[in-house]
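User: Is it possible to get a 3D structure for a protein together with its bound compound? The compound here is uridine-5'-diphosphate. I've pasted both below.
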Amino acid sequence: MKYKRILLKLSGEALMGDQQYGIDPKKLAEYAAEIKKVHDLGVEIAIVIGGGNIFRGVAGANVGMDRVQGDYMGMLATIINGLALQGALEGSEMLTRLQTALKIEAVAEPYIKRRAVRHLEKGRIVIFGAGTGNPYFTTDTAAVLRGVEINADVILKGTRVDGVYTADPEKDPTAIKFENITFSDVLKKGLNVMDTTAFTLSRENELPIVVFDMNKENNLLKVCQGNDSVGTTVS
Ligand code: UDP
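Assistant: Yes, that's possible. Here is the predicted structure of the complex:
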């Protein structure tokens, strides 16, 4: 396997499947099956999950809600998704731990780096909930932060687009996909990989990012095996 320890970032929106809101159990089961394939091969897996399928702080602020209040609602949404994912993974015979940046002790462990690493070493999948625990951040930033902290080999950003393109492929049919690109070229070309905070943190710590389509069967496995035809590697 190319990567021994991965930080998988899943967006909350991806969990909606074909629905307009919430969590689609079919999608959860699909993700659990894909994650199991790499788990069975001994890859250590940490996961950060977003909350956009339930609530985004910015959306609240747009309709007059206090931004900080909205962001805490968003963080709580990521914990709900984390619990759902934990259930799906355990239903597929994987051991997991949910650790959260906001303490919610009846349902999850508090985030403790050394403990998270120990879980990974024992083959448990660690899900990080509540993002960074701070308003004005995103779960992409939380993913890179946790990835750096636990010494992950790579950030795997599973989305519905299969890589980084010259333009938005959902809007521009002439857009071309990069197989590999450097952090500097992403900046020079003004491409959108992650928000600036997340991207800068990744770049400064030389932690590569692979953007790939998580909705295609075996893609996660192929990325972990180092198959360059899947997704785009930013390094
Ligand atoms: N959030 C936050 N701090 C963090 C991570 C998330 O305040 O460190 C809030 C923020 O309101 C964000 C929401 O949680 O909009 C959901 O996260 P995100 O939008 O990153 O989820 P995704 O787009 O991946 O579904």
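The CA atoms of residues 37 and 184 lie 33 Å apart. The longest helix spans residues 67-91.
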